[in-house]
């Protein structure tokens, strides 16, 4: 996990670059990228409300919704099989929960288990495509995969929040 400390001016520069990227990207472009990644068009259309969120940060008006959407897209593009595995796990758990009588009992277990199994499988495929996967499987390897997934996701989230909120500390 990469831990770097940014200065206030570095964070402001990064945020300005993100804002420039958001300004150059239309909502239609984001919709196209999301649907090309396999997101159902109904879900992509509902994200329109997120794209419209703008907030003042410091002395600037920031397209917060677009920046968050672009960061999510970047994460998914860097980890495509992880995202697909999570979606597949959620879909399977949804199917399990729709089974009459038994589905209601299995639903609380099926959703987190389906997402976790899908995420691990997708993460392992991403690692294999990058040439960084070992062929061994065991409880420790699976735990390491879960830690890697959480680490990558939360580090990306922390970096994004830190940069977007850099002017709140002053």
UniProtKB/TrEMBL annotation:
It comes from the Bacteria. This is Uncharacterized protein.
């Amino acid at each position: 996990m990469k831990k770097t400390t940014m200065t206030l001016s570095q964070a402001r520069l990064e945020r300005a670059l993100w804002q420039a990227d958001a300004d150059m990207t239309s909502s239609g472009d984001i919709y196209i990228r999301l649907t090309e990644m396999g997101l159902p068009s109904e879900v992509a259309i509902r994200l329109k409300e997120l794209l419209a969120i703008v907030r003042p940060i410091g002395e600037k008006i920031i397209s917060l919704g677009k920046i968050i959407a672009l960061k999510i897209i970047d994460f998914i593009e860097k980890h495509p099989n992880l995202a697909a595995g999570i979606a597949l796990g959620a879909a399977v758990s949804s199917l399990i929960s729709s089974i009459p009588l038994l589905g209601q009992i299995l639903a609380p277990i099926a959703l987190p288990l389906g997402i976790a199994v899908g995420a691990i499988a997708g993460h392992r495929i991403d690692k294999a495509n990058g040439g960084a996967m070992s062929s061994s499987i065991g409880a420790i390897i699976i735990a390491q995969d879960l830690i890697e997934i959480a680490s990558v996701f939360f580090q990306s989230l922390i970096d994004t929040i830190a940069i977007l909120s850099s002017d709140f500390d002053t």
